[in-house]
Design a protein that fits this description.
Strand order of the largest sheet: 5-4-1-7-8-9
Structural class: alpha/beta
Helix content: 25-40%
Oligomer: single chain
Strand content: 15-25%
Length: 312
């Protein structure tokens, strides 16, 4: 029997993250574009991951992705070390994440690996291509390749690129079908504008916008049409890492399934909440505990207890 689920390709980077949150410090947590891939999977899509993979990225974690149904045929081997990120949100509470610090954005080695590990554009058929945070020129290449395949394009960015490449990213927005930035990224792209003024400015550049406003939820807008708002579904926050990426993957899957906007936003917010409820990608169904074997997995400093759901 053929698989009727829509096809979503997620393009981006794999990373090994150090996550600092109120529940401890967790090292070598698998991260990057896999959050968007897992979010699209949770929203009912067949998902292919397009990224460069280095030898130091644990094969057991790739096996875990394959076990939950992520197609890894789009991975390409690359020399050198995986990108390393440090994500700090020490003041997060059960109810709300705070402003996360990303000191790796100041590391020249992180930028060097960003250029070295940029994934090649997707060439496999897809209904929607998700372009996770990457330099503006890479985003343009991926968008052009996706449209040449007849796929719709969903993208977000990060504070690193929004800070350094605001004009180039804004110029690329007409090539997208949906752009889903965070509040912090929008403020860097359009400094001096409040949320509503920024939304109108983005509406003029991209057919569809989802403005991710953290605890205030998500706002969908299309120029000249009603604005839709979905409150945040997060009730228990362990770690905000990857929640926005998971939401973007879910949005792409919802577009591919032609869901009504209200249903699409509700599903994306619920999936983002699942991601935030546990440290790393555990809340999205990536069972690292079964995959760890003799290799080191995410761990809390000073404790033998692995990353788990936050306790009240």
């Amino acid at each position: 029997m053929s698989d009727a689920r829509p096809r979503v390709t997620v393009a981006g980077y794999l990373s090994l993250d150090t996550i600092v949150c109120p529940y401890g410090t967790f090292e070598d947590v698998p991260g990057g574009a896999l959050y968007a891939a897992l979010g699209a999977r949770a929203a009912g899509a067949r998902v292919r991951l397009r990224a460069s993979v280095c030898e130091d990225f644990p094969a057991l974690w790739l096996d875990a992705l394959a076990t939950v149904g992520i197609d890894l045929e789009g991975l390409e081997s690359a020399p050198g070390a995986t990108r390393r990120a440090r994500l700090e949100d020490r003041e997060a509470t059960h109810a709300q994440a705070t402003r996360r610090a990303s000191p790796h954005h100041e590391d020249p080695e992180w930028w060097a690996r960003t250029r070295a590990l940029a994934p090649a554009p997707c060439r496999a058929p897809a209904d929607v291509v998700v372009i996770t945070a990457m330099p503006a020129d890479c985003l343009v290449r991926h968008a052009e390749a996706a449209h040449s395949l007849g796929a719709r394009v969903v993208a977000d960015t990060s504070e690193a690129y929004a800070r350094l490449e605001a004009e180039a990213l804004l110029a690329a927005l007409p090539r997208l079908d949906l752009f889903a930035p965070s509040r912090e990224e929008v403020h860097l792209l359009l400094p001096g504008l409040d949320d509503e003024a920024a939304r109108h400015a983005l509406d003029a550049r991209c057919p569809q916008i989802v403005h991710k406003r953290g605890p205030d939820g998500m706002w969908w807008s299309t120029a000249g049409l009603p604005v839709y708002h979905e409150p945040s579904h997060a009730r228990e926050i362990a770690d905000s890492t990857g929640a926005g990426d998971a939401a973007v993957g879910a949005l792409a899957a919802g577009l591919a399934r032609d869901l009504p906007v209200t249903d699409l936003l509700r599903e994306a917010s619920a999936i983002a909440a699942c991601a935030a409820g546990m440290v790393g990608p555990l809340g999205l169904g990536l069972d690292l505990e079964r995959s760890r074997g003799p290799e080191p997995g995410p761990r809390a400093q000073g404790s033998a207890k692995p990353a788990t759901r936050a306790s009240r």
